[in-house]
């Protein structure tokens, strides 16, 4: 970039780099601030909106530029009673950021609001004047003087600061939720200039806002509900509009958690005697051989040994029938002998071998 500049020798304004390079001021705000800084003394009585119209900054562009100047401390406004009890809006424009307390000192040194009271003038009350009929200006245009509510003044000495407020000389401390609700209400001016509230105005709505927080609504959600969906024809009264919205859009209270009922204590009962184990009775076995007894499970009439011997005998009979031999005697002995090495298996094999030899000899 090639830069060439010639320093002016007359008709120039000294501009601070803090203003020219301010990151939170748009170009309209910077031009308006530098324009007012270089005004001659004879034109300082005009309102800031009239200077903006001369520069071609009107409507929403002027509102945005002025809001940035107010938020960053370059412009301050104060309503004060003038002559004959009429209210007038005074504007203070500075080339350096000022706090509300600093602006109040400048106004006091300049004698703003120190006019005579209406009763000190003669005559005190004049003749009634005819009623003037006007029309409502659009919301996005500058409304002019004597239209905005008086801004909040900085707390003077003796008043509470931080999370306290002085009411009739008595300091009222705010709880954590009340302080958070107040911060949400005062921050609405950053979302839309129509929702600008003073501290006394916000204090009237703290109770309703705290109820929202108690019902589980976060501070960000509360700010979004209050600042979104504004009416098209503008907000006439920020206090009335926000109070109506806080009441009408109040969320449902959470259902109370029922307290657990105390458990009833049952009377102590005497220890019951232990139940004796069930013992299967002994029955007499219906199988062959000497008389003997066993414990019958499932209605059995023979012991397990007799049932096994009978099963082997039935199998031997079927096997002998398949071989075509008569092994009734051997089968009976097999029942008595069981499954020994000299039992019915060996005898059955020997009998089969004998029959085979007899058939071969014939």
Helix-strand layout with pairing:
Blueprint: H1 17-20, H2 27-37, H3 48-54, H4 59-71, E1 75-81, E2 87-93, H5 100-110, E3 164-167, E4 170-173, H6 176-186, H7 188-191, H8 199-214, H9 219-227, H10 238-248, E5 282-284, E6 293-295, H11 304-323, H12 328-337, H13 344-361
Antiparallel strand pairs: 1-2, 3-4, 5-6
Helix pairs in contact: 2-4, 6-8, 6-9, 8-10, 11-12, 12-13
Radius of gyration: 54 Å
Whole-number mean pLDDT: 75
Q: Let me know the largest β-sheet.
A: 2 strands, antiparallel
Which segments are poorly predicted (pLDDT under 50) over 5 or more consecutive residues?
134-147, 150-162, 165-170
**CATH second-level architecture of the largest domain:** Orthogonal Bundle
Strand order of the largest sheet: 1-2
Number of DSSP strand runs: 6
Q: Which fold name is given in CATH as the topology of the largest domain?
A: Arc Repressor Mutant, subunit A
Determine and state the CATH class of the largest domain: Mainly Alpha
The tally of helices reads 13
| DSSP helix fraction | 40-55%
Structural class: mainly alpha
Kindly report how far apart the N and C termini lie.
138 Å
Shape: elongated
Tell me the fraction of residues in β-strands, as a range.
5-15%
* Total of domains: 3
Commentary on this structure:
This protein has 362 residues and is mostly helical. It folds into 3 domains: 10-116, Orthogonal Bundle (Arc Repressor Mutant, subunit A), CATH 1.10.10; 165-254, no CATH class; 282-354, no CATH class. 40% of the residues lie in helices and 8% in strands. The strands form 3 sheets. Strands 1-2 form a two-stranded antiparallel ribbon. Strands 3-4 form a two-stranded antiparallel sheet. A hairpin with a 5-residue loop joins β1 and β2. α2 crosses α4 (59-71), α11 (304-323) packs antiparallel against α12 and α12 runs antiparallel to α13. The relative contact order is 0.05.
């Amino acid at each position: 970039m090639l830069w060439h500049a010639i320093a002016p020798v007359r008709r120039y304004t000294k501009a601070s780099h803090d203003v020219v390079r301010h990151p939170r001021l748009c170009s309209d705000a910077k031009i308006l601030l530098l324009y007012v800084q270089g005004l001659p003394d004879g034109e300082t009585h005009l309102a800031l909106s009239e200077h903006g119209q001369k520069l071609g900054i009107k409507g929403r562009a002027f509102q945005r530029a002025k809001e940035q100047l107010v938020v960053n401390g370059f412009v301050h406004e104060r309503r004060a009673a003038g002559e004959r009890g009429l209210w007038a809006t005074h504007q203070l424009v500075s080339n350096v950021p000022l706090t509300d307390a600093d602006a109040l000192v400048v106004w006091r040194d300049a004698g703003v609001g120190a006019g005579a009271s209406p009763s000190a003038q003669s005559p005190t009350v004049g003749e009634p004047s005819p009623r003037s009929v006007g029309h409502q200006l659009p919301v996005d245009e500058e409304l002019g003087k004597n239209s905005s509510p008086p801004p909040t003044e900085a707390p003077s000495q003796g008043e509470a600061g931080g999370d306290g407020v002085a009411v009739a000389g008595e300091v009222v401390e705010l709880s954590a939720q009340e302080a958070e609700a107040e911060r949400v209400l005062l921050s609405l001016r950053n979302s839309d200039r129509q929702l600008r509230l003073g501290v006394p105005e916000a204090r009237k709505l703290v109770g309703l806002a705290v109820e929202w927080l108690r019902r589980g609504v976060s501070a960000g959600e509360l700010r979004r509900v209050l600042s979104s969906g504004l009416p098209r024809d503008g907000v006439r009264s920020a206090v009335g509009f926000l109070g109506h919205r806080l009441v009408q859009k109040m969320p449902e209270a959470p259902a109370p958690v029922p307290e657990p009922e105390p458990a009833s204590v049952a009377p102590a009962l005497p220890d019951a005697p232990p139940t004796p184990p069930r013992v299967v009775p002994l029955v007499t076995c219906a199988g062959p051989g000497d008389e003997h007894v066993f414990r019958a499970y499932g209605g059995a009439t023979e012991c397990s040994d007799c049932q096994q011997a009978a099963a082997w005998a039935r199998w031997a009979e079927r096997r002998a029938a398949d071989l075509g031999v008569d092994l009734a005697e051997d089968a009976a002995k097999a029942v008595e002998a069981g499954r020994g090495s000299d039992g019915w298996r060996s005898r059955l094999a020997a009998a089969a071998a004998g029959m085979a030899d007899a058939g071969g000899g014939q």
